[in-house]
Specification:
Layout (H helix, E strand, L loop, with lengths): L1 E8 L4 H27 L5 H15 L4 H23 L4 H12 L11 E3 L4 E4 L4 E4 L6 E7 L2 H6 L3 E10 L2 E9 L11 E6 L5 E3 L4 E2 L2 H20 L2 H10 L2 H23 L3 E5 L4 H4 L7 H5 L3 H15 L3 E4 L24 E3 L6 E3 H20 L8
Parallel strand pairs: 8-11, 11-12
Antiparallel strand pairs: 1-5, 1-7, 2-6, 3-4, 4-5, 6-7, 8-9, 9-10, 13-14
Length: about 375
């Protein structure tokens, strides 16, 4: 399986940092020039576009041969992604309008957008923990990079392109890692996981994971942003810039911790992981005005993706089930009624009298449904041959 990892470049001088920044600007200006040709002449296939713009962008933007090739491929990949999104399922009326507007003009790349590198223009020295990288100012050799010991081990299996990224004046390389994928084992039941806004994840074992704490953190950041935006001073704008993406990083770290805990529990007990299929929930669910920010900052898709890839690396099967009525159905007697859910936190069955935490009841229903799906033949069920 393929995963991505990130290392931070540590340019030794301002000259090296300026060379990296200038390289991104030149490559993305070249990408915009190629994108204009691809759109106006409808040349979105790589070989055709290459013949039309290669010599021009190489001369006009002072690019080497291989960087020019990577830039053209980046443009073609962007149009292929746009076409793939166009063919995707219904995004609703507003989504269709945005998609139509995107298709009516050329794709524009930011000047600091990521630039792909291959092994001809980027060389890794893992022993010295440095890279040699092409720039418009010449090849920079011995640029140190920082990463965790685990990431350094993973980089030994690196394959394909790496992307040069600049964020907040810092430079990163994002590499693709090819790691061995163990076979999926036959599970002895399933660990149901109920995803929610108040409680991010609740398992069928009764564990409630990191809800209130993260919601309070997000609320503090929303209040702070609103306060700073009202000031409209240069100092307030500097603080807003410094705080940008901090909340997203914190939420991603929390989701990593939760996903790791869930997969480790399932692996240790030889169970699979059962999740709800929540695709399109933001279009289906309506929320009051004071609840919209919490709904749309809910990173359930990210948590589900983290659980899926960590489970894949561990050989743990993952099954998605229909989420309908998981919060209204009793996990003991299967009686389903909307009045069973007394409030956000409490479930009381009107038939058998079972009382438990509502999210715990929902996660048990998810586990039961996953077991039934597996018995019927789940998509990622291991081969018995």
């Amino acid at each position: 399986m393929k995963i991505v990892t990130q290392v931070k470049l540590l340019p030794a001088s301002a000259h090296d940092a300026d060379a990296l920044a200038a390289t991104l600007r030149a490559c993305n200006r070249a990408a915009n020039a190629a994108s204009e040709v691809a759109f106006t002449k409808d040349l979105k296939r790589r070989n055709v576009l290459h013949g039309a713009v290669y010599h021009r962008i190489k001369a006009d933007f002072d690019l080497g041969a291989q960087p020019a090739v990577r830039t053209i491929k980046k443009v073609c990949d962007a149009y292929a992604t746009l076409k793939g999104n166009t063919k995707a399922g219904n995004l609703g009326q507003e989504g269709s309008k945005r998609r139509t507007r995107a298709e009516s003009k050329p794709i524009v790349f930011r000047e600091d957008a990521a630039q792909p590198y291959d092994d001809r223009i980027l060389t890794w020295n893992l022993d010295a923990q440095t890279v040699s990288i092409w720039t418009v100012a010449g090849r920079l050799k011995g640029i140190p990079f920082a990463c965790s010991p685990e990431t350094l081990k993973l980089l030994a299996s690196r394959k394909g392109e790496s992307d040069l990224v600049m964020r907040d004046g810092m430079f990163f390389l994002i590499a693709t890692i090819d790691v061995p994928e163990p076979p999926v084992f036959e599970p002895n039941g399933f660990l149901g996981v109920d995803l929610g806004i108040v409680n991010i994840a609740t398992t069928s074992d009764g564990d409630i994971l990191a809800g209130r704490r993260l919601n309070r953190y997000r609320q503090r950041h929303r209040d702070l942003r609103a306060k700073l935006q009202k000031k409209r001073t240069k100092a307030a704008k500097r603080v807003l810039k410094r705080l940008r993406r901090r909340e997203a990083r914190h939420a991603a770290n929390t989701n990593h911790i939760i996903a790791k805990q869930i997969v480790a529990t399932a692996e240790r007990t030889l169970r699979g992981v059962a999740l709800e299929d929540l695709g399109g929930i933001r279009q289906r669910v309506t929320a009051k005005k004071d609840q919209r920010a919490r709904l749309h900052s809910w990173a359930f898709a990210q948590l589900g993706a983290f659980i899926a890839y960590k489970a894949q690396r561990a050989g743990v099967p993952v099954v998605h089930v229909d989420p309908r009525n998981t919060s209204r159905q009793c996990s003991e007697c299967w009686h389903t009624h909307r009045t069973n859910r007394v409030d956000q936190a409490r479930f009381v069955c009107r038939s058998c009298g079972t009382v438990m935490h509502a999210d715990h009841n929902g996660s048990r229903n998810i586990a039961h449904r996953a077991d039934a799906v597996w018995q019927r033949g789940a998509v990622n069920r291991p081969s018995t041959a």
